[in-house]
Write a structure and sequence with these properties.
320 residues, TIM Barrel, 9 strands, 37% helix
Length: 320
């Protein structure tokens, strides 16, 4: 073997080692801890004492809340593995609309997951970046239940064809198109809608990027579209706030039907919500898991509350 060949082999080995280290770090950094009830969560702090008082007044004024007001975030992910058929079935059994997250596989299959690095989930048989390295065979072998609890071992990753049959049997399904390649995934979504005539503009809401909304208006007119917002420059209540009034003012009812601001008891005032609703845009706050915050949001005029645990939140709101 020549000196040049040895250098070439050493370079290949070094590249492989560096790649192995990189992917190992990725898996460690993104792996779901087996004790985590819900992966990838940014939990809001408990409602302040003033908001608790506000919530009690809101409950007295509103009186009651129906399951159709609470949207199951990734299905009933509190009691089932999120974004799975059991989670959607549990939400439907409770009368809740539900939300799920969509990506496009390398093979052109629209499938349901929230995380890009799906190989990081413990017990997963599928490996690779969801956007370009996963194909149908891996999806069918994937285990997205084992991280939750042993009894969920063997739960498979759904595709869009597992989700759309629920349309019409729940108040609505919200499809969150996470994949940024909207020009590739949305035509596949349209094809899937054609296979499921029960899925209509009346019972399906689409969440996608600005480019995706433009595609939807051209190719799937009539569907309700959302615009999501964070109200601070970060995920925490200590982070600097944005100009929420300016965010609300730019919302265009010709382009969206639902505004989805992250719940913030300080920034998301009744005045802001009223400004948006006067445009004919509904308001869905996310992601609210405590009864006081949910009642306060509804009292300020929100139409819908996105929550990780709809059945238990509904019970706690009734008992609040």
């Amino acid at each position: 073997m020549t000196k040049h060949s040895l250098k070439g082999c050493a370079g290949v080995c070094a590249w492989r080692c560096a790649s192995a280290v990189f992917f190992a770090v990725c898996r460690v950094c993104t792996a779901w801890d087996a004790s985590t009830p819900q992966p990838d969560r940014y939990e809001l702090p408990p409602a302040s004492p003033d908001v608790v008082k506000e919530a009690r007044a809101a409950k007295m004024h509103i009186g009651s809340v129906s399951p159709s007001t609470l949207v199951a975030h990734r299905g009933e992910g509190w009691i089932c593995p999120e974004n799975t058929v059991p989670a959607f079935a549990a939400a439907a059994a409770g009368g809740f609309p539900f939300e799920c997250d969509l990506w496009l596989s390398r093979e052109g299959v629209v499938f349901v997951t929230h995380d890009v690095w799906i190989g990081a989930k413990k017990g997963h048989a599928a490996h690779g970046w969801a956007t370009n390295m996963v194909w149908r065979g891996s999806l069918e072998k994937s285990d997205v239940g084992v991280w939750k609890a042993p009894e969920w071992r063997g739960t498979r990753m759904p595709t869009i064809d597992d989700v759309l049959p629920w349309a019409g049997s729940v108040p609505f399904i919200q499809l969150h198109v996470c994949d940024p390649r909207t020009d590739m995934i949305l035509p596949r979504l349209k094809e899937a809608m054609g296979r499921h005539p029960n899925a209509t503009a009346g019972n399906v809401i689409i969440s996608t990027s600005v480019a995706g909304r433009e595609w939807m208006r051209r190719n799937m007119p009539g569907f309700r579209l959302t615009d999501g917002s964070t109200l601070r420059n970060g995920w925490y209540v200590t982070d600097p706030p944005f100009n929420v009034k300016a965010i609300a003012e730019r919302l265009d009812p010709a382009k969206i039907s639902v505004w989805m601001p992250r719940w913030d008891e300080t920034l998301l005032t009744a005045e802001i919500i009223s400004m948006v609703r006067r445009k004919g845009i509904k308001v869905m706050v996310w992601t609210v898991n405590d009864a006081a915050s949910a009642w306060a949001a509804l009292g300020r005029g929100a139409d819908l509350v996105l929550t990780d645990r709809p059945s238990s939140l509904l019970r706690e709101m009734k008992e609040f």
